[in-house]
């Protein structure tokens, strides 16, 4: 099942040939063919959902220790195959080597380890007893109560292309730990890594039907995975537009949802901020997945008194960012996922120019090697205003927009909250109390105070059109469970 071979689907514990044949997975760095991904039919997706439904009863009643052991063994396999699987992830996504190793396969391993422990977390919580008087409902009594978290059932996991390891691992591992079964539909651009995850689980001894992976470039594959009557919940990471359509389908049959959607992270830089620290944080937009990450601080809102200095420092920072082949030492910025996405990012840069923004750095397509690959220059758009589309819409590329403000923190908060999105935002200030005060007022699911770091036990999710629900840490276990009340006299 090597990365260069024609990949088969994983359905009901078996590797099966796809009804729709195969399509090429292209390396964004040089446009070579990484491998052949399977194109499932609607019938095969339905078969996968049925297999998951049939496996649910047995898996949900499996001892938590057994579920934990399987997740741990799968992590062992991932660790054993770390080097070739990191190389595959780099080839599929165009991520630089360090990111493919540490933030893709490495995070996949750590999430399986985390939810192996999570399978052993208590699912019952006793509630205070309640004394009831005699009445129409019966005799006087003392009623005990128990809150019990139960698995939801069959979960369709639709994963994003920017990280084919961390993202599916963050869905599959907690879902399995809670006793759910899964149908995984990977992003069409880079599905081969997700099949490696299935290989690890298969070798670890996961029972047939508990994990199923179906892929395809056709929209029909994802639609079938969402609207199947066997599916009880959909966990989706991707664009807000697609998320809305999935939510509409889920609403018709009351399927549970976990949605991690778009972001346009506000980076509020107050006049007393450490500008060097702010630049290091904001600069990750250019380097981390080439800006293809919904948590990036892409929308800088900076006080006029430090505006020129911040722009100068960001421009200087960009000058040292090597754009190039992700396999070469020293590369900081790799390609974006596809030619179509490169065109989309570049069209936003041109739109910004037409809207009146000034290109302080970038804006021209870089040429790497023989000219192949989907490279976008890290670009800094300055002199922006909050009504520009480049400020309001998610670009999902290595582009940062800078909006100056003249007033106090009230104006900064107003500008930051004037957005359809609310996933992660950031505040930089030399006054910690002030920074926390501003953070509490930002309409975002998470706020970084003088950091872009994330606590991986803290709840993750978005306000407004950035999503529904929370996961990460124990919150992911809660996301993949239903709460049942048991009351007794």
Automatic annotation (TrEMBL):
It is an enzyme of class 1 (oxidoreductase). SUPFAM superfamilies: ALDH-like. Its EC number is 1.2.1.8. GO terms for molecular function: betaine-aldehyde dehydrogenase (NAD+) activity. Keywords: Oxidoreductase. It holds the Pfam family Aldedh. The keyword Oxidoreductase applies. Belongs to the aldehyde dehydrogenase family. This is NAD/NADP-dependent betaine aldehyde dehydrogenase.
């Amino acid at each position: 099942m090597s990365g260069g071979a024609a990949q088969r689907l994983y359905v009901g514990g078996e590797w099966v040939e796809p009804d729709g044949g195969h399509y090429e997975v292209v390396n964004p760095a040089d446009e070579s063919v990484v491998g052949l991904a399977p194109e499932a039919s609607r019938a095969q997706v339905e078969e996968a959902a049925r297999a998951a439904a049939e496996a649910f009863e047995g898996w949900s009643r499996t001892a938590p220790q057994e579920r934990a052991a399987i997740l741990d063994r799968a992590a062992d396999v991932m660790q054993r195959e770390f080097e070739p699987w990191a190389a595959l992830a780099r080839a599929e996504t165009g991520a630089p080597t360090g990111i493919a190793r540490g933030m893709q396969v490495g995070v996949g391993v750590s999430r399986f380890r985390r939810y192996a422990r999570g399978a052993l977390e208590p699912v019952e919580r006793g509630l205070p007893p309640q004394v009831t008087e005699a009445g129409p409902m019966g005799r006087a009594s003392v009623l005990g109560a128990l809150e019990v978290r139960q698995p939801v059932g069959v979960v369709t996991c639709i994963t994003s292309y920017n990280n084919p390891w961390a993202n599916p691992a963050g869905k599959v591992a907690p879902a399995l730990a809670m006793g759910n079964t899964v149908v995984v539909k990977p992003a069409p651009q880079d599905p081969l890594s997700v099949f490696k995850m299935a290989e690890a689980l298969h070798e670890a001894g996961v029972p047939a039907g508990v994990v199923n992976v179906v892929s395809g470039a056709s929209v029909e594959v994802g639609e079938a995975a969402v609207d199947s009557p066997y599916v009880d919940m959909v966990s989706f990471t991707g664009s807000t537009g697609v998320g809305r359509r999935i939510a509409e389908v889920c609403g018709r049959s009351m399927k549970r949802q976990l949605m991690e959607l778009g972001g346009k992270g506000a980076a509020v830089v107050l006049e007393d901020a450490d500008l060097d620290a702010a630049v290091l944080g904001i600069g990750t937009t250019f380097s981390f997945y080439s800006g293809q990450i919904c948590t990036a601080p892409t929308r800088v809102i900076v006080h006029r008194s430090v505006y020129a200095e911040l722009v100068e420092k960001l421009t200087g920072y960009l000058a040292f960012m090597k754009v190039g082949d992700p396999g070469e030492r020293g590369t900081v910025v790799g390609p974006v996922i596809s030619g179509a996405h490169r065109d989309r990012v570049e069209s936003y840069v041109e739109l910004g120019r037409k809207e009146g923004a000034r290109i302080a750095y970038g804006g021209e397509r870089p040429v790497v090697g023989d000219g192949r690959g989907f490279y976008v220059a890290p670009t800094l758009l300055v002199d922006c205003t909050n009504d520009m589309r480049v400020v309001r819409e998610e670009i999902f590329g290595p582009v940062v927009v800078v909006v100056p403000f003249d007033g106090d923190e009230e104006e900064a908060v107003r500008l930051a909250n004037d957005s359809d999105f609310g996933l992660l935002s950031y505040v930089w200030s030399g006054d910690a109390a002030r920074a926390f005060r501003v953070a509490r007022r930002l309409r975002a699911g998470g706020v970084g105070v003088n950091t872009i770091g994330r606590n991986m036990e803290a709840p993750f999710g978005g306000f407004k059109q950035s999503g529904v629900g929370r996961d990460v840490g124990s919150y992911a276990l809660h996301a993949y469970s239903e709460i049942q009340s048991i009351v007794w006299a």
